[in-house]
Design goal:
about 70 residues, alpha+beta, two-stranded antiparallel ribbon, 4 strands
């Protein structure tokens, strides 16, 4: 599904431009994995900002939490 906001295609998740919801989820999971590799206050802030981006794309907070839990490295 293409991302269209205010008549323009594409959105940012973190610092990465995405054009589909599937790619937004992939990028979010990439950020989760990177942030949890070395969990610090700074990486927590980055993950919070990326979560806000996902919420702006239309994901609920529960969906974002489920995606985060699924992407945490074991």
């Amino acid at each position: 599904m293409l991302v269209k906001i205010n008549g323009k295609y594409g959105a940012r998740v973190g610092n990465i431009q995405v054009f589909t919801m599937e790619r937004a989820v992939e990028v979010f999971q990439m950020f989760v994995a990177r942030c949890y590799e070395n969990l610090t206050m700074e990486s927590s802030c980055v993950l919070s900002d990326v979560s806000d981006d996902m919420h702006r794309l239309g994901f609920s907070w529960a969906e974002i939490e489920d995606m985060e839990l699924a992407a945490i490295p074991q």
